[in-house]
Amino acid sequence: MSDEELLAGEEPLSADDLFRVRKKSGEWKAVETPKFGVTVADAHTHLQYLADPVLALARAGLAGVSFICTVLDVLEDDEEVLGRLRPWTHQAAVSMQRTVPCCCGAPRPRVPQVRAAVGCHPHNAARYDAALEEKLRTWLRKPDVVALGEIGLDYHYDFSPAADQKRAFRAQLRLAKEAGLPVVLHVREALADAWEIVQDEGLPEEGVLLHCFTDTWEALEPWVEAGCSVSFGGAITFGGADAIRDAAARVPVGQLLLETDAPYMAPKPLRGQKCEPAQMVFTAERLCEVRGADDEDARRELLLATQRNALALLDRKPTAWQAGGPR
After folding, report:
1. C-alpha–C-alpha distance, residues 150 and 197, integer Å
2. CA neighbours within 13 Å on the CB side: how many for 266?
3. Is the dihedral of CA 118, 122, 124, 125 positive or negative?
């Protein structure tokens, strides 16, 4: 495909390391990619929903993303996706070796390591029953599965009745504790009810990640005080998101993570496009600004901390339960 054909498309499908935005003329122009000198981790994405997961992984590696946790829904997604993660990674690595030259002894960019979380999203809670839970148990024992999620409550869309959401949430919290796995929470306009449930059920010892946080610090504070981790995505770059940025500025650095939630919520200046893990760098840049990391050393220290947090929570060996024995 020529550059002219590429730039004339509805969205820029790129095999290079450039990001593009559409001008009023309809043409696409490249935008500068933030560079940090360190890699970053995408704690929450959905590779299976991207048009070309292999290309997305290669582009993520070029952008400096070294770790990705992709999230699957036990009702909506195909179990075969879990078997494709390693082939996708291998294919992306082969592609990068062929197309990215070594330069002056500099290290060659590497494809991100990919792990997975699986769960029943609150949107599908009305269909959570014994059969679905048994299916989820099977998925949780698969290689590369490191967390149970995303689970929780969503009162914004309310696709499942609140009573069903609470029931499924409680059941999956119990399953996570049985399996010895951390949980990835999706909580939207329901933090108070979710907090009541986790207080009643008890927080999993292996960890809790509030993904894609978009509420206020006041709503978040009890979760942070309880030791939960918090992940921020493209929303911290949006106009009018001062409350989210305020929360991101207050979370202790040891509990702070970054994510894309691709293909959703592309950050500025790419808002309106389909998101991909490579776009993490724009969210990382904004987080550095929010946290006052205004020089190279401070940015490196902050982003390395978010990466360490992601790896500590989501890059884990199989539990005894996953290996087929009791916890």
Report:
1. 16
2. 17
3. positive
Q: Residue 70's closest CA among 94, 87, 92, 45?
A: 45
Residue written as token pair 């901390």: 305
Determine the Cα–Cα distance for residues 79 and 81; give it in Å rounded to an integer.
Answer: 5
* Token pair of 281 as six digits: 């760098």
The contacts of residue 251 (CB under 8 Å, 6+ apart) are 220, 224, 230
Rounded Cα gap, residues 191 and 157, in angstroms: 15
Q: How far is CA 30 from CA 21, 235, 281, in A?
A: 6, 22, 15
Please answer whether residues 267 and 237 qualify as being in contact, where contact means their C-beta atoms are separated by less than 8 angstroms.
yes
What tokens were used for 236?
Answer: 């911290």
pTM equals 0.92
Furthest-apart CA pair in the chain: how many Å? Answer: 62
Cis bond before residue 107 (omega within 30° of 0) = no
Residue 127 carries which DSSP code? G
Can you give the pLDDT of all 327 residues of the chain as single tens digits?
333 333 344 555 577 778 898 888 888 888 888 889 999 999 999 999 999 999 999 999 999 999 999 999 999 999 999 999 999 999 999 988 776 655 545 566 899 999 999 999 999 999 999 999 999 999 999 989 999 999 999 999 889 999 999 999 999 999 999 999 999 999 999 999 999 999 999 999 999 999 999 999 999 999 999 999 999 999 999 999 999 999 999 999 999 999 999 999 999 999 989 999 999 999 999 999 999 999 999 999 999 999 999 999 999 999 999 988 665
